[in-house]
Each structure stands twice: as structure tokens, then as C-alpha cells.
Design brief:
The protein has about 350 residues and is mainly alpha-helical. Strands 1-2-4-3 form a four-stranded mixed sheet, with helices on both faces. The protein is globular, with a radius of gyration of 22 Å. The relative contact order is 0.14.
């Protein structure tokens, strides 16, 4: 089903791209846009993940230079039944993360140093489980292709001002067509991009919570990341806004409403959905693909997940947040940014 949706989305983005070409240059412009779209499709399939990682200046790490972070991803991938993805770190104080790659065999996950510094071990595990859920659902190819197409369509719309003024370009709509290409086309690409991201984030939240076993870990992480993203700018994302929907929380400023024009659903709605999922799991009504524990008796504790005791069962006194396991150096003893 995801493969069919991806094919339909690529077809829609290609048609939109050709439509922009027609508005700018008539039938000739449409054919040129078709060729560009075909090249963009091929490039996106094979190289868009590398482009996204490069734009964010991500550095690949392993068990030697990022032992705890790498171990979290490795354990989660095993829990989800996925191949171990390539693991990257982004030297950025804003807490955030994303996944990319054309399939689970060629996937990559990336987390910022700000994420590892500001979140607990359990919260980092929940975030990376969310990203692995995108990999498992094969969202990474779709989201990366949409980012590439949205950027290309926006760029083509900007070129319309320079290319559309030529009377010999066979543009049947004249200035109106150029104006539509400049305004409507990038706007339409943005709507497609954001609508795709919003529906998939809810699905990845649920599956990520199932992989790590504790929805409240992810709920807590989303709250911290959202508050951090509001205060801490992400210059790389601001320079390339077409990539914003790849991140677990919108890295840009000013888009917080849960409407058609936000790159993500509202954090409050996502947290509420995870809290409801936690209540269902505590009541024994949640059906997860992993082994389901037997219903608890009165006073019995929730079984432990891969990283310790579940936070759903509220203790008599509020539990203090665990100390950051990375300290000043988020990558371990041999970290790149120690």
C-alpha cells in the first residue's frame, strides 16, 4: 500500500511540475519540465538521502565514537526487526532528529547533539524508535522525494519571473501564467508536502511507541523537543525549508497551529494521542506486534522495556528525571564534539 501511495504521490508531483512548466513556457516548457521531473525522480531515488544528510552537515558515527547513541539505535532496530541503519550525528544545539533513505536496507537516522544533550536515555530511545517507524513504514523515500520536488518546484516558480517575460516562450497565459507559476505552484507544493508529513507523523508516533514499549517516553520527548525548537534556531533548516517535514518536530519558527499550513500536527495533539495509547496499554487493551504482557494484578508493576522501568505506573512520589547519560560530550569518550 505504501508503495502504491508513493507512486501516486510521485505522479502528482510530476504533474504539478509539468503544470508549472506549461504556465511558464507553454507546451515546450511542459516538455522541459517533464524531463527535469524524470531526472529529479531518478536523483531523488538514489541520492536524495545523501543530499539531505549533507545539507544538515551530518557526520556518520559508530559504536566506537558514539557508543551509547549507537547502542540505542542498534537495540531498537533489532526490536523492530529492521536492518541496522547508518547512524549520524548533527552538530546542532536544537534538539531534533530525522530518518532518510530509499528503503530499510539503505536507511539512515540522524540526531542532533542538542537532542542527546537535553533528553534522557529513555526519551532518546523513544525518538529514535519514531524514526525507525518511518523507516519500517517506508516513509523515508516518500518524504525525501517530496522534499526534493517541493524545493525544485519552488525554485522553478522563482525562475518564472525571469523566464516568463520573454514573448517568444510560447506561454499561452502571458503574465497571468507567470504570476500563477510564481505564487500558486510553490504554494501547492507546500500543501502536498505538509499534508503528507502530518498523516505519517501520527502513524510513526504510534509505531515508535510500540517499538520502545512506552508511549509516555515519546510524549515527554516531543514536549522537550518542541520547547527547544521554539527557543533554539536551526540555520541549516531555515536555509532549506523544504526539508522541515523530515524532522520529528518542525525545526522552523512560527508554524505551531494544527492546520493545513503546518509541517507537523500540533505537539499537543500528538502528546494527547500517546497518553491515550499509554492508558490503553496500561489497561491491557492495546494490541501491539510485539509480545503482549499479561494483564497486571493490583499493585503489580508494568514489565520493563529495553531501557528500564515503564513510566506509566505513577509512583507514590514523582520520580526525578534521570541525569543526562552523555554529560557535556553527547557522543561518548571519543566524540567528535567533545
Amino acid at each position: 500500500m505504501n508503495t502504491l501511495r508513493t507512486a501516486m504521490l510521485i505522479a502528482a508531483m510530476t504533474a504539478l511540475f509539468m503544470g508549472v512548466g506549461f504556465l511558464i513556457g507553454g507546451s515546450g516548457g511542459m516538455m522541459i519540465a517533464l524531463l527535469i521531473a524524470a531526472g529529479t525522480n531518478l536523483f531523488s531515488y538514489w541520492n536524495a538521502d545523501k543530499m539531505v544528510l549533507s545539507m544538515n552537515r551530518a557526520v556518520e558515527v559508530d559504536e566506537k565514537n558514539a557508543p551509547e547513541y549507537y547502542a540505542i539505535v542498534e537495540a531498537l532496530a533489532k526490536q523492530a526487526g529492521l536492518p541496522m541503519p547508518r547512524t549520524y550525528l548533527i552538530d546542532n544545539p536544537q534538539p531534533n532528529a530525522f530518518a532518510t533513505g530509499r528503503n530499510p536496507q539503505n536507511a539512515a537516522v540522524a540526531a542532533s547533539t542538542g537532542l542527546l544533550q537535553r533528553l534522557t536515555h529513555e526519551e532518546v530511545a523513544a525518538v529514535m524508535a519514531h524514526e525507525l517507524a518511518h523507516v519500517q513504514h517506508r516513509d523515508t523515500l516518500t518524504m525525501t522525494i517530496v522534499a526534493t520536488f517541493a524545493g525544485a518546484i519552488s525554485m522553478l516558480g522563482n525562475f518564472a519571473f525571469f523566464l516568463g517575460g520573454n514573448r517568444d516562450n510560447n506561454n499561452p497565459f502571458g503574465f497571468v501564467g507567470v504570476l500563477a507559476a510564481m505564487i500558486v505552484a510553490p504554494f501547492a507544493a507546500m500543501i502536498v508536502q505538509m499534508a503528507v508529513s502530518r498523516t505519517r507523523e501520527y502513524e510513526a508516533d504510534r509505531r515508535g511507541a510500540e517499538i520502545c514499549g512506552h508511549p509516555l517516553w515519546l510524549a515527554s520527548a516531543l514536549d522537550k523537543i518542541a520547547r527547544g525548537a521554539e527557543r533554539i534556531p536551526n540555520p541549516d533548516a531555515e536555509r532549506n525549508p523544504a526539508m522541515a517535514h523530515l524532522f520529528i518536530i518542525n525545526p522552523l519558527h512560527g508554524e505551531r497551529m494544527d492546520n493545513l499550513f503546518s509541517t507537523h500536527p500540533s505537539t499537543e495533539n500528538r502528546i494527547a494521542a500517546l497518553q491515550e495509547m499509554a492508558r490503553q496499554m496500561a489497561g491491557g487493551t492495546q494490541a501491539a506486534p510485539r509480545p503482549t504482557p499479561a494483564p497486571r494484578q493490583a499493585g503489580e508493576q508494568q514489565p520493563s522495556g529495553p531501557w528500564g522501568q515503564a513510566p506509566q505506573a505513577a509512583p507514590a512520589e514523582p520520580e526525578r528525571p534521570k541525569a543526562n547519560p552523555w554529560g557535556r560530550n553527547p557522543t561518548g569518550p571519543k566524540g567528535r564534539w567533545s
